[in-house]
User: What shape does this take?
Amino acid sequence: MVTGHTGFKGTWLTLWLSILKAEVLGYSIDIPTTPSMFELCETGNVCDSVIGDVRDLEHFSRVANGYKPDVIFHLAAQPIVRESISEPLKTFSVNAIGTASVIEYVRHSRRPIVLVLVTSDKVYQNQDWHWGYREIDELSRQDPYSASKAMAETVIQSYLYTFPDAEFTDRLATGRAGNVIGGGDFALNRIIPDVYRAISDGQALHIRNPNSTRPWQHVLEPLSGYLSLAGNLLGEVSGVAGEAFNFGPHSESAVSVHELLRVLGHSFPDNWPQVLVKEDLTTSEAQLLQLDWTKANLVLGWEPILSLGEALDWTAVWYKNRLEAERGIPQEQTLAEVTLTQIAQFMERLETRK
Assistant: This one.
């Protein structure tokens, strides 16, 4: 079962699970963007799909009980920092109460269910450090999005502390990642989707913080971490249950927005938009953010696969296909085929690493 399956990460995960021959039930409140990767890739053909709000415990429980999932990946969230500022109450409710609702279902379930809870790299109280944040570092109390994800982490720890001997605590873990890139993201106020829209509309690209440094990584990287968590929990590997894990890129992938755009621009030489800096003084976003993924490496054997250049190349291939299709240029592969091909290539890289 994947909550938030119609979103960017949820669609990629659902398609990856389909390759793994998993039977997937998706549970989401809506289709979050127009256009939508979920719809463009016809993802509804590879999963059962239910519209519902994770905060509605009665409905969620009824659906889950009918499906009887072995694993739940909880990705449903309000994921946009700027939207959290305009709608803080919704953000707190979806991200914190929604997490509590899913845990509450698993706690009362009579079946053993592995639960992988996804939060964010923004859970950390940002100090603009030049080194990566570790899982033991202070949680955020900053913007509503960051605080809501920290609240979700506090909810998780509260359940673990309150019910230490309950069986569900042996099958639960948290994944933290952020600033993912890849084809199919159409959310507002994210740099790669903004590039796509600028090219598609023939407009200038407006950026807020060109010097902000982020741990950019392809979406398949953290998804491989979430799948690793599920596998280790199913195998009852020690040191995983009840723990939080960072899934971040290599340190050289933590670059500024300006540098990210410079590298990505090589993939769109003929129609790269004019870039204009339009600072937003109404929001306070950290300038530096990096993750330390040592724990994931030591406990799970996880490490990132793609370089930043490769991640951007794969991302560009996806959006080029979409842009050319918009202009009526015939494509050798559908967007679903492009996505599945990249997942297969990533899986090959994982096998080679082993």
In short: The first strand starts at residue 2 and ends at 3. The first helix runs from residue 8 to 19. The CA atoms of residues 100 and 155 lie 6 Å apart.
